[in-house]
Write a structure and sequence with these properties.
By secondary structure, the protein is mainly beta. 13% of the residues lie in helices and 43% in strands. The protein starts with a strand and ends with a helix. This is Fe-S cluster assembly protein SufD.
């Protein structure tokens, strides 16, 4: 698999530029390109839907998204109804779970909606769920949030708040069938440590559009693991900002895109304070006609963010003809006083050399293909740290690969 890397140019300029970053296979199977305006949205952040024009697909932030398949989430025609969602929260002792109104000061503290769907979700939910881990509380069991779609359209808002020096693991598990627009906020106090595993294991017809906002406190550590398998259209927008120096953010992602599915992950890490770190690694595998994966990785290092250390990488494995990848890494640097910054994008077909090596040692072709793909994802699965979730995801990968390796 060919991989291209960019060493950023320091100063008030973007890193890289033509020629495109990444690798391109024959036909329309895979595309990687450098963005020049990826961190610039068509409208300023706002909680008001009216501040965002209805997108037409020509806007930078919407140009890859099949708007006609969003079931009205983007133009205001989607109305909450049907059986909606069933949400269950399992929290260890000492954790507070509340249902609050839109006037709660914690809502929107981590980030403001940056597109029309996120603003629509903020204005349309009935009650937001706030899960609070008190300061200096170290949880030995994960918080588990099960979101199950039972048909219909729903809007949601979830807040996970950790007090100073608290530590927690949160699993948000999406299953069933729904049309869902949501905002998820993560608030980390100074010295806190939060790991979030967000699993999108929707039924085939589901539509899920969400903005994830993390505000990382001084010397706090945030790790996000996003796993996307199901759904007709899944469009996630993780965003990270820092509330004080010394913060660290790790963003990991794994997606397996099947025939006809559109899976889009758009990330922004905003280094807005000095001496913070970030590391982004997303990997995807695609199979089947019209499987389409989009990864947008934006890192902004502001002029005041001296001492920043950041890197982002996206790798894609195309298992069959007819699939398409758009991979857009982008790095904008406004100060030369940084520790390091870089990005990489790679897209390639199934590695026949690895397959031949395994088959030469007596492993049947079907099993050899599974081993190669499992090895490709192994690094990210291990980041989860919960054996039951890891085993489930490995089993899901095996199940999804059946169509490609049979």
């Amino acid at each position: 698999m060919a991989e291209a890397q960019n060493s950023p140019t320091l100063g008030s300029a973007r890193a890289g530029g033509p020629p495109p970053v990444g690798s391109t296979t024959a036909g329309s199977i895979a595309v990687a390109a450098e963005s020049t305006v990826a961190t610039r949205m068509s409208a300023p952040p706002s909680f008001d839907v009216a501040d965002f024009p209805v997108p037409h697909g020509r806007e930078e932030e919407w140009r890859f998204t099949p708007l006609e398949r969003l079931r009205g989430l983007h133009d205001g025609t989607a109305v909450a109804g049907g059986n909606g969602l069933k949400v269950e929260v399992q929290a260890p002792e000492g954790v507070t779970v509340e249902a609050v109104g839109r006037d709660d000061a914690r809502l929107g503290k981590a980030g403001v909606p940056v597109d029309r769907v996120a603003a629509q979700a903020y204005s349309a939910f009935e009650k937001a769920s706030v899960v609070t881990v008190p300061k200096e509380t170290v949880l030995t069991e994960p918080i588990r949030i099960a979101v199950h779609g039972e048909g219909g359209t729903a809007f949601g808002h979830q807040v996970i708040e950790l007090g100073a020096f608290a530590e927690a693991i949160v699993v948000i598990d999406h299953t069933g069938d729904a049309v869902l627009a949501a905002n998820v906020d993560y608030l980390l106090g100074d010295g806190a440590k939060l790991t979030v595993v967000s699993v999108q294991d929707w039924d085939d017809k589901a539509v899920h559009v969400a903005q994830h906002n993390a505000l990382v406190g001084r010397d706090a550590s945030f790790k996000s693991v996003v796993v996307t398998f199901g759904g007709d259209v899944v469009r996630l927008h993780p965003r990270v900002r820092y509330a004080g120096p010394g913060g660290e953010a790790e963003l990991f992602g794994l997606y397996l895109t099947d025939a006809g599915q559109h899976q889009e992950h758009r990330l922004l890490v905003d280094h807005n304070v000095p001496h913070c770190k970030s590391n982004v690694v997303y990997k995807g595998a695609l199979q089947g006609d019209d499987a389409h994966a989009v990864w947008i990785g934006d890192v902004l290092i502001e002029a005041k963010a001296e001492g920043t250390d950041t890197y982002e990488m996206n790798r894609n494995l195309v298992l069959t003809d007819g699939a398409r990848v758009d991979s857009v890494p982008n790095l904008e640097i406004e100060t030369g006083e940084i520790v390091g910054a870089g990005h990489a994008s790679a897209t390639g077909r199934f590695d026949d050399e690895q397959l031949f090596y395994l088959m030469a040692r007596g492993i049947p072709e079907q099993e050899a293909r599974r081993l190669v793909v499992r090895g490709f994802f192994a690094e990210l699965v291990q980041q989860i740290g919960l054996p039951d979730i890891e085993e489930r995801l490995i089993a899901k990968i095996e199940e999804e690969l059946e169509a490609a390796v049979a």
